């Protein structure tokens, strides 16, 4: 496992979901080498799909940017050492909904 405590950057998850994400990251880092980002992401995503339903997305790496739309209560970004983990459940906004939001703004 990568040494160091997880540091949460942003989240809107319930505390229990946050803890589950951190626990899964620790377990993934026990199973896989820290350089195996794809396997770490796959592991965390599949476990969250199993626990909370399908539709979760996981991005793992040391240097990435993102701009995502997510379901309320389904987003966490945290770091363990130099490894960053973004986990979220995607949310699609239809063109009609997007136009309605633009009118309200």
TrEMBL record:
<keyword id="KW-0812">Transmembrane</keyword>
<protein>
    <recommendedName>
        <fullName>Dynein light chain</fullName>
    </recommendedName>
</protein>
<dbReference type="GO" id="GO:0005874">
    <property type="term" value="C:microtubule"/>
</dbReference>
<dbReference type="GO" id="GO:0005868">
    <property type="term" value="C:cytoplasmic dynein complex"/>
</dbReference>
<keyword id="KW-0963">Cytoplasm</keyword>
<dbReference type="Pfam" id="PF01221">
    <property type="entry name" value="Dynein_light"/>
</dbReference>
<feature type="transmembrane region" description="Helical">
    <location>
        <begin position="67"/>
        <end position="88"/>
    </location>
</feature>
<keyword id="KW-0243">Dynein</keyword>
<dbReference type="InterPro" id="IPR001372">
    <property type="entry name" value="Dynein_light_chain_typ-1/2"/>
</dbReference>
<comment type="similarity">
    <text>Belongs to the dynein light chain family.</text>
</comment>
<keyword id="KW-0472">Membrane</keyword>
<keyword id="KW-0206">Cytoskeleton</keyword>
<dbReference type="InterPro" id="IPR037177">
    <property type="entry name" value="DLC_sf"/>
</dbReference>
<keyword id="KW-1133">Transmembrane helix</keyword>
<keyword id="KW-0505">Motor protein</keyword>
<keyword id="KW-0493">Microtubule</keyword>
<dbReference type="GO" id="GO:0007017">
    <property type="term" value="P:microtubule-based process"/>
</dbReference>
<dbReference type="GO" id="GO:0045505">
    <property type="term" value="F:dynein intermediate chain binding"/>
</dbReference>
């Amino acid at each position: 496992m990568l040494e160091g405590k997880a540091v949460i950057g942003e989240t809107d998850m319930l505390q229990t979901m946050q803890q589950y994400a951190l626990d899964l990251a620790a377990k993934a880092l026990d199973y896989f080498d820290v350089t195996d980002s794809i396997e770490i992401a796959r592991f965390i995503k599949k476990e969250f799909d199993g626990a909370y339903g399908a539709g979760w997305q996981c991005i793992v790496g040391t240097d990435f940017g993102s701009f995502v739309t997510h379901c309320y209560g389904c987003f966490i970004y945290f770091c363990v050492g130099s490894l960053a983990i973004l986990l979220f459940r995607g949310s699609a906004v239809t063109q009609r909904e997007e136009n309605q939001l633009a009118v309200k703004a």
